[in-house]
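To whoever is covering the structure queue this week,

Two jobs came back overnight. Logging them here so there's a record in the thread.

Job A:
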Amino acid sequence: MTGPAPGPATDLGDAVLGEDGVARCVWAARPGPMQDYHDTEWGVPVAGRGVERETAYFERLTLEAFQSGLSWATILAKRPAFRHVFAGFDATVVAGFGEAERAALMADARIVRNGAKVDATVANARAVLELRAEGPDVFADLLEAYAPDDQPRPRTVAETPTTSAGSLALSKELKRRGFRFVGPTTAYALMEATGIVDTHLVACHRRRL
């Protein structure tokens, strides 16, 4: 489902009207991988149940952690390589990574070679498994429990939040559960990417809530 069509051009805020006549968030204004990601995935709630849903969230959490300090375009371009080296983000496999796997990851130029983030990914996989032991959907349900009652409605980039009370609380809970590289900003980016919060600009055609 998409949001309502924008009104006159003065109602667009910072949204950009593309050559195809469609209004989008400014970071997705140009045709290409970022626009495709914006139009088909970013802000879309995670579907499925059990391990499928868990894996989708684990992938998003990992990529958002690696994105910290970098551009999302960089991470998006490297996503196929990340999927390959992290076994399709199968938490059971990643949780078993040891020194040999770490050394291989740190030698692989296809991904972002950051030792702290690699170690965090393995630790996070183990934390996911601990949550799985409580139930097949506990990890995903935990994340979704922090959806706000009132969604932000930014018209401009300046009005778009980068953290929230919910992301701060989620960050604290994830850290308590043994997760790493899950500060409030990363937690909020995860919430945005998976539709837990909707920060598409109000005039954007992908606005849902």
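Job B:
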Amino acid sequence: MAHLADRLSGRYSRHGLWILPLGVGLAGIVGLALMADDFLSPQNLFNLAAQAAPLLLVSIGQMLVVLVRGLDLSVGSMISLTTAIVSLDASPWATIPGAFAAAVLVGLVNGVTVVRLNVHPIIATLSVTGIIQGITLFVRPVAGGTIPEIVTTLVREEVFGVPMPVFWVVLAIGLGWKLLHGSRFGLHLFAIGGGDTAHSFGIPDRRNTILAFVACSVFAALAGLFLAGRIASGDPNIGTQYAVDSITAVALGGTQLAGGVGSLQGTVIGTVLLALLANGMNLLNLSAFVQTAVKGLILLAVISIQPRKSIGL
């Protein structure tokens, strides 16, 4: 049994076991197609892409932090702050760069607090979450405002009959691949998360850990920009669910929360699984309370089979 648990948890692969989630996803697609007549309709599939795009963006960012044995609980608040900034009555050439500048600042604060002040990532990012949420409510106390036309166009329009959310998904995967497999940065993240000897081999572990938190916040800002264009307003609470959902998607795709093991394809599969689950439960008219409970049970189950030497992540 222990040997089987090790195999299922992906202990022997740097990329984790993403084949099993892929099989579950394919089975889920078949099951939903049989239970819900509208599941395979073009409109529902396009809606599925629109639901998956922001979660995929924030989950890829979350994965970068998890690889270095961290967690970022501030991504949800960063999403909300982005929608609030973009919805201000000002030029988009100021608000959009301003939102990403805020994301870089948040990532730096998270990273420096964890690396330099030795604060646990959960405590550090949870504290930053409260600060960001307070600023967001100051900027946009209630949902409203106007989103620049360029943002709504990039989210709602079609190109050659293909909805823009599909291109956002491709963008997210392309950025994730570039960071993980097209640069030394990705290799360094695996090395840092794999043990405490990365620094001995000349890898700037502290700098790269901080950069992982910065990249995570920037991905969250991209997700916020997408959501702002989709709902055409700013919303101080729209990002609430994404912190837990992104961690669930990352873990579901085979990334070890203890660090050093994970893959882009696994995160994509985990995101699709969650999007399929939410879409299917909506089609079956299950309540939001049931959906939240199901996601919580999935996260608990996935973490329970991950190998850990001691209590903790």
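Note for Job B: Residues 37 and 283 are 9 Å apart (CA to CA).

Please reply-all if you pick these up so we don't duplicate work.
Q.
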